[in-house]
Amino acid sequence: MYSKEYLKHFSDPQNIGAVDDPDITCTVVNTEGGCFDTVDVTVKSDNGVVTDMKYRLKACSGTITAFSLLSELIRGKTADELDLITFEQMDTVLGKIPEKKHHSLRLAVEAVQKIKEKLK
């Protein structure tokens, strides 16, 4: 049901915590019903490039997995390059997750958009 990549990020989530002295902070909350995932994101940037991202969350397995992946994908990206991080891309990398976990990817994409707005 879940891919090897999904299980890797869920079993050993990367970059949990908070960036020291962040340049960007944002919070995303699942309002779709079901689980009430909340993710606090901190980002460090240098000259408009994301250099670090960490997150703290109260969330389901899908959101833990999505933000672990996101924390790896986002590093080294400029505001314009953040458009390359999409629902479809993340879903493909994670092996087409079940529909009941799609809210997790939507939360990650929402965080990307909030980061992009503040990175410019």
CATH level 3 topology: Sufe protein. Chain: A
**What is the approximate shape?**
globular
| Strand line-up in the sheet with most strands | 1-2-3
What would you report as the Rg, rounded to the nearest angstrom?
13 Å
What's the number of helices?
Answer: 4
- Kindly, what is the distance between the CA atoms of the first and last residues, rounded to a whole number of angstroms? 39 Å
Mean pLDDT: 96
SSE layout:
Layout: H1 4-11, E1 24-29, E2 38-46, E3 49-58, H2 61-73, H3 87-93, H4 102-119
Antiparallel strand pairs: 1-2, 2-3
Helix pairs in contact: 1-2, 2-4
Q: What does this protein look like?
A:
The chain has helices spanning about 5-10, 60-75, 85-95, 100-120, and strands spanning about 25-30, 40-45, 50-60. By secondary structure, it is α+β, with helices and mostly antiparallel strands. A three-stranded antiparallel sheet has the order 1-2-3, covered by helices on one side. A hairpin with an 8-residue loop joins strand 1 (about 25-30) and strand 2 (about 40-45). Helix 1 crosses helix 2 (about 60-75) and helix 2 (about 60-75) packs parallel to helix 4 (about 100-120). The chain is globular.
Write a brief caption for the model.
The chain contains four helices and three strands. The chain is α+β, with helices and mostly antiparallel strands. The chain has a single domain (4-119), classed as Sufe protein. Chain: A (Alpha-Beta Complex), CATH 3.90.1010.10.
